[in-house]
Design brief:
Layout lengths: L9 H5 L7 H23 L9 H19 L5 H24 L1 H8 L3 E5 L2 E2 L1 H5 L5 H10 L8 E6 L5 E5 L27 H4 L3 E3 L20 E3 L3
Antiparallel strand pairs: 1-2, 1-3, 3-4, 5-6
């Protein structure tokens, strides 16, 4: 029968049940696994964390488990851990080669850029997706210095999840205001039958589409309108 664990046993909490010399073994294990993994990643040519693709993100997760266990678990042999790391890195390299040689493999494994804003209006297809909400999109646009959607000529979600913004040139048309965020200061809704509608100053409070005379937005089919910011 296992011995009962004594609460707040400092020796168990700080050192564990292994002999103190095992701490030296952990140092040796860590150096070996770290150096071996570093050499493989250098061969792989991995990008920085902010540029990781889906495949490379999976590589990070898999390596984290394989490398971490071998560093301090005494019952995990180093050769077995190194074999796991090797298989994971080689598999990633083969996937990278497939992506480089096949457009179909690139679309399946790495995704593709998506248009999210065109001429100040949020794309209808983006509104139907669930990978990023429009509030998250507006946050990305604010971080790029955008105050209202009329400033945006094109915006794309790249394969790494970042939003690339191309601004309008010349005189800026009015658009849906995104500063301040609507969660802090909700848009003031305006009836499409008011005077503002005849002046062409109404935009959809959801996607920024300009009012075209009907009660329902032709882009997102919502019925809430607000004044455009100029």
């Amino acid at each position: 029968m296992d011995q009962a664990i004594a609460a707040f046993d400092l020796k168990r909490m700080l050192i564990g049940e292994e002999p103190p010399l095992f701490l030296l073994e952990i140092i040796v294990r860590t150096i070996i696994i770290y150096a071996y993994t570093l050499l493989l990643l250098r061969w792989l040519g991995s990008r920085t964390v902010g540029q990781l693709s889906t495949v490379e993100f999976l590589l990070v997760i898999a390596l984290g488990s394989a490398v971490g266990d071998a560093m301090f678990y005494p019952d995990v042999p180093l050769l077995q851990a190194m074999l796991v790391v090797t298989v994971v890195v080689v598999a990633n390299k083969l996937l990278d080669l497939s992506i480089a040689k096949s457009r179909r493999a690139e679309r399946v494994l790495d995704g593709k850029p998506r248009e999210v804003v065109r001429d100040g209006v949020v794309a209808r297809q983006f509104l139907k997706e669930t990978s990023m909400s429009r509030y998250e999109l507006f946050q990305e646009l604010r971080e790029a210095g955008i105050e209202q959607l009329g400033e945006v000529r094109r915006a794309y979600i790249e394969k790494d999840g970042k939003v690339t913004v191309f601004r309008q040139k010349g005189d800026l048309p009015g658009g849906l205001p995104i500063v301040p965020p609507s969660q802090i200061e909700p848009h003031e809704l305006v009836s499409p039958n008011g005077q503002a509608a005849h002046d062409g100053k109404l935009v959809c409070a959801t996607c920024g589409n300009k009012h075209d005379g009907s009660d329902q937005c032709s882009n997102c089919e919502r019925t809430e309108w607000t004044l455009a910011s100029t």
